[in-house]
Each structure stands twice: as structure tokens, then as C-alpha cells.
Amino acid sequence: MSKRAFITGVTGQDGSYLAELLLGKGYQVHGLVRRTSSISRSRIDHLHVDAHDPDARFFLHYGDLTDSSRLRDLFAEVEPEEVYNLGAQSHVRVSFDEPVFSVTVDALGALNVLEAVRHMKTPARFYQASSSEMYGKVAAVPQDENTPLHPRSPYACAKVYAHYQTLNYREAYGLFACSGILFNHESPRRGESFVTRKITRAAARIKLGLQNKLYLGNLDAKRDWGYAPDYVEAMWRMLQHPTADDYVVATGETHSVREFLEESFSHLGLKWSSHVEVDPSFERPSEVDILLGDPTKVREVLGWKPRVTFRELARIMVDADLEAARKEAAGL
Ligand code: NAP
Ligand code: G4F
User: Fold this and answer.
1) pLDDT on residue 40
2) In the chain, what are the domains?
3) What's the pTM?
């Protein structure tokens, strides 16, 4: 009998890569999807097979992180052995515009999942998608599992709440509950409004004459950028370990937005400074200036290390966006 996993946020960047990873390991994978007026599941369309197929191992269920009774019913019905809570309003800038919604989904949504797990006949192992944004106004460089938290956005405050509830449910109820404190991770499936994807997509479209300008906010911010398929592997490893714990997942290198621009545009023979303009509307009321993770623990305890370098990451993303821009230019 194959192991059953449940993923919230399965339609997102990480959820889609994690579903692929688990299906490749022989799991039966269940995902939570929101009802929307038009269906947008482009990241997981390739995984979908007819649910009536006797060999089907990938199943989608309507639900929402804010609907606690639905989560309880679903976990009772599916009885997953592992639950990965990846669902979130994940855009930091947007969380300043929609703080109540973001906190409801990212903080209370995580609590709803924890409660649903706690009430299972046999509680599943639980993974919480914590974030390096929790370090915010950083108390130390680099940041590790013991660095104090100082969140700088409604999103980060909500993630801190979910992070501590995960620890609390581990201590209070003995749940096997882990938090992965993941630093920024990107891929061709990254949402188009995050800075890396916005840059690689623009570079490709500029190369083909489909656009001329790129408007960005703070170019000096520094992030520890890794490759998303590497990072979902760390999530899985956390839930296979004999004991539950929290881990920083990062590359151990930091680069500015400006450096990412240089790497991406130069790959296409373009000069970024001829195309980029700063638009203050993309700046945040309070910024996280520098994130740099120390991945010693995840390397030593779980044997995890990143496989893709900063330069390779930019090139993978630019090449994928160039392919997409070619199709766009050809009207396909
Ligand atoms: P993403 O691409 O934005 O995906 C977010 C997912 O959450 C989508 O599937 C979305 O569904 C779903 N979702 C949003 N609101 C929901 C709700 N109310 N109920 C149920 N599902 C909901 O994010 P990601 O980059 O894959 O990140 C995955 C998780 O890791 C998030 O929790 C994020 O905060 C966290 N994280 C990400 C990074 C990073 O660098 N990527 C780093 C640290 C932590 P729709 O498709 O319907 O919108
Ligand atoms: O790509 P970003 O929007 O990612 P951010 O804010 O670091 O958050 C991402 O990583 C977190 C982990 O640390 C996750 F928890 C979170 O869910 C998300 O995945 O912005 C990166 C940097 C920021 O400093 C921002 O101010 O890029 C700067 N930036 C400059 N111009 C921009 C832009 N960011 C965006 N989104 N758009 C711009 O035009």
C-alpha cells in the first residue's frame, strides 16, 4: 500500500514540485484546491489523470485553509500519513495591502491545519512552510535556527504565528510537527510578480522586442536565492527523520536584486541599465535588507545540500522564459 500525503498549496510553485517528488517516490498524493471562477492549474496539469483510473495516485479536493471543518473532514476521509502546509497568500508586498486576509490565511489557516491533524485517528506528520522573512530586521548575519525573529510585514508576522504554533503543537500534543525555515527559492514556475521571475520574464521579452522597459522597486535588497526543486526535497527529508525539528534551508550565499539583473540580462547579451527604471510603488513600507541563511543543520542532520548555483538558477529561469517568449512572439 502506497503512503498517502496531503499538500495544501498544491497549485503553487512548491506544491507542484513536491507533488512530482512524492509521486516519483510512489506516494498517493492529495491536494487542496480553491474554487475559482476559471480554473488555473497550469503547474499541475501534467500530473492529472482521470480519478477513476485504477492506477490514479493524484487526487484534488476542493477546500480552503480558512474552512476548518472542511479540513477536518478531508483528513478523516483521506487519512494521510504526511501533511505539508504550503498554502498561503505568499506575496510580502501584497500583505501590506491585504493584511487581514493574509493573516487569516497564513496564520489562522495553519492553525486550522494543525487542529485538523490533531483530531485525526492517527495524526499525520506535519510540515509547516515557515519563512526567512521571519528574521526581518535581522539580528545576525547569517541567520540560523537560533537567530531571534523580527518580522517586518503582515506576511512575516503571520508566518511567525504559524511557526510558533507548530512548535507548540509539537510540545503540547506530541505531534510530529516540523517547520522548514526556507530562504527564497525560485524556478521557471515562480509567480510572475516575484522579483526574480519578473526580471527573467522581462529580459526574455525585451530580447524578442515584446517589451522595452522593466519597472522595479528596491534594487539593493539582498536575498539567499536557491532552486525550488532542491528545496521541496528538504521538506520531504524533514518528515522522514526519526524526530521532528525545525531547519533553516538556504544556500549560504546572498546576492542583491541588482546582481540578479546583471546575471539574467547578460545571459541574453543585454545591458539591464538600459531597460530598468525604479518605480517607488514597488517598494515596501518596511524592507528586509539582507537575508543569508546558514544551512549547517540541514546539511549535517538531513544530508541535504543545494545543487543549483545562483548563476545556474538565473540561466535556467531566463532560458525557460525565452522559450515562452518565443511562443508568445509566434502567437502560439
Ligand atoms: P505560491 O506559488 O504563491 O503558492 C501558494 C499556494 O497557496 C497556491 O497553491 C495557492 O492557491 C494556495 N493558497 C492561497 N490561499 C489559499 C487558501 N486560502 N486556501 C487554500 N490554498 C490557498 O507559493 P510558493 O512559492 O509555492 O510557497 C509555498 C509556501 O512556502 C508558502 O506558504 C510560502 O509562504 C512559503 N515560502 C515560500 C518561499 C519561497 O521563496 N518560494 C520561501 C519561504 C516560505 P491558488 O493557486 O488558488 O492561488
Ligand atoms: O521576490 P520578492 O517579492 O520576495 P520576498 O519579499 O523576499 O518574499 C519571498 O521570499 C520569502 C522568503 O524569504 C517568502 F517567504 C515569500 O513568500 C516570498 O516567496 O522580493 C525580493 C526582494 C525584496 O526586497 C523586494 O523589495 O526584491 C525587491 N524588489 C525590488 N523590486 C521587488 C521588486 N520585489 C517584487 N516582488 N517586485 C519588484 O518589482
Assistant:
1) 83
2) 4-186+226-249 (3.40.50.720), 195-222+254-291+308-329 (3.90.25.10)
3) 0.98
